From TrEMBL:
Keyword annotations from UniProtKB, A to Z: Methyltransferase, Nucleus, S-adenosyl-L-methionine, Transferase
Protein name from the UniProt record: Type I protein arginine methyltransferase
Cellular component terms per the entry's GO annotation: nucleus
Positions of the Protein arginine N-methyltransferase domain: 211-372
Record GO terms (molecular function): histone methyltransferase activity; protein-arginine omega-N asymmetric methyltransferase activity
Coiled-coil residue windows: none
CDD domains associated with the record: AdoMet_MTases
Naturally occurring in which organism (per UniProt): Opuntia streptacantha (Prickly pear cactus)
């Protein structure tokens, strides 16, 4: 249970995706002791007793508390619902598998982090000989039921546990499939789990799906949002809360960016070959040059990733960039301390260093160096960020 804490919140942690905030329109008088429909709140113990009765009779009384979900958010179906409904993501995997049955026919597949078992089901349907679906959260119990309900239990074996700790019943697998990507590609560090599985079980000429991932950078105009999310802290109901502004600046914001906000070209920072790379390759420094395509202000740099499946008949994959159809990964916005005034053709040059945090390997530390010497603006600065 504790171990799974590391996987918590990869996709749910979306800073803009809090679905539990009540609609405040219903709460005109915050001090009143009224319920939403304006009837006084009952203080009777009968209500409590009947709640307990109802709870006891529920078929899914599984003893999990909100604390369990806090430490292991992948155990709750909500996060899987969000991923499954991300059509760009799930349809791409489905198309890759169904349109390339030759890859799967009679092959042994390992699904790293199976969740609901969706990728395992796709593989089984595409003709895999056997699929091992490994999942460390309690969702593994559901995956087992789902696989049974769909008649695939002879082809798919669900193993509940961490990849790093389970005993796989076979010495080798032909294919490793996984949807491991986190925000900013590397947040949550599940890539290491895939590399671990690859090095332990993948046959010599085996394949990893997807096998390429790339990180990209661009620059945007974002005055309104920077004002709302960052400068807001300078004056809150007349008080100076700028110490929080400093923290807000340190945390990249996961959000969707409108393509009209893009001011420069998009620069490729890094390509990772999942079939060959080592865990160390996920920490790197990459130079960039962003050339302005119009006169504008720049408030932030924006990072996003693409993944591809190069072993298919034809190249397949998807992009999480602002010019592509939105995914649940959105984009990652890094606000700049200075507002840059840039003219068409001028360049922001610099480098981005990305490293796993030493204390908590799920977190990503980012160092950004940038330099602009333009007609209206000269800046040279280093900024630090932390994805957590
Ligand atoms: N394959 C599913 C779920 C992807 S999310 C889908 O495509 O819908 C990633 C899943 O990997 C989560 O359910 C998480 O609990 C699981 N996971 C993360 N790290 C793991 C590890 N080390 N061992 C086993 N499962 C892991």
């Amino acid at each position: 249970m504790f171990e799974c804490q590391k996987e918590m919140g990869r996709k749910k942690n979306s800073k803009h995706h809090v679905s539990v905030i009540p609609n405040n329109d219903n709460f005109e008088n915050p001090d009143s002791n009224m319920s939403v429909d304006n009837k006084p709140v009952e203080e009777s113990s009968n209500l409590y007793d009947s709640m307990v009765e109802i709870q006891d009779s529920l078929p899914f009384n599984d003893d999990k508390t909100s604390a369990d979900y806090y430490f292991d958010s992948y155990s709750h179906f909500g996060i899987h619902e969000e991923m499954l409904k991300d059509v760009v993501r799930t349809k791409t995997y489905q198309n890759v598998i169904y349109q390339n049955r030759f890859l799967f026919k009679d092959k042994i597949v390992l699904d790293v982090g199976a969740g609901t078992g969706i990728l395992s089901l796709f593989c089984a349907k595409a003709g895999a000989k056997h699929v091992y679906a490994v999942e460390c959260s309690h969702m593994a119990d559901m995956a087992k039921k789902i696989i049974e309900a769909n008649g695939f239990s002879t082809v798919i074996t669900v193993l509940k546990g961490k990849i790093e700790e389970i005993d796989l019943p076979v010495p080798q697998v032909d294919i490793i499939i996984s949807e491991w990507m986190g925000y900013f590609l590397l947040y949550e560090n599940m890539l290491n789990t895939v590399l671990y599985a690859r090095d332990k079980w993948l046959v010599e000429d085996g394949i990893v799906l997807p096998d390429k991932a790339s990180l990209h950078l661009t620059a945007i105009e974002d005055a309104d949002y920077k004002e709302d999310k960052i400068e807001f802290w300078n004056n809150v109901y007349g008080f100076d809360m700028s110490c929080i502004r400093k923290q807000a600046m340190l945390e990249p914001l996961v959000d969707t960016v409108d393509q009209n906000q893009i001011v420069t070209n998009c620069q490729l920072l890094k390509i990772m070959d999942i079939s060959k790379m080592t865990p160390g390759d996920a920490s790197f420094t990459a130079p960039f040059k962003l050339v302005a395509e119009r006169n504008d202000y720049i408030h932030a740099l924006v990072a996003y990733f693409d993944v591809s499946f190069t072993k298919c008949h034809k190249l397949m994959g998807f992009s999480t960039g602002p010019r592509s159809r939105a995914t649940h990964w959105k984009q990652t916005v890094l606000y700049l301390e200075d507002v840059l005034t840039i003219c068409e053709g001028e360049e922001i040059v610099g480098s981005m260093t990305i490293a796993q945090n030493k204390k908590n390997p799920r977190d990503v530390d980012i160092m950004l160096k940038y330099f602009l010497s333009g007609r209206h603006c000269s800046v040279s600065r280093t900024q630090y960020y932390k994805m957590r």
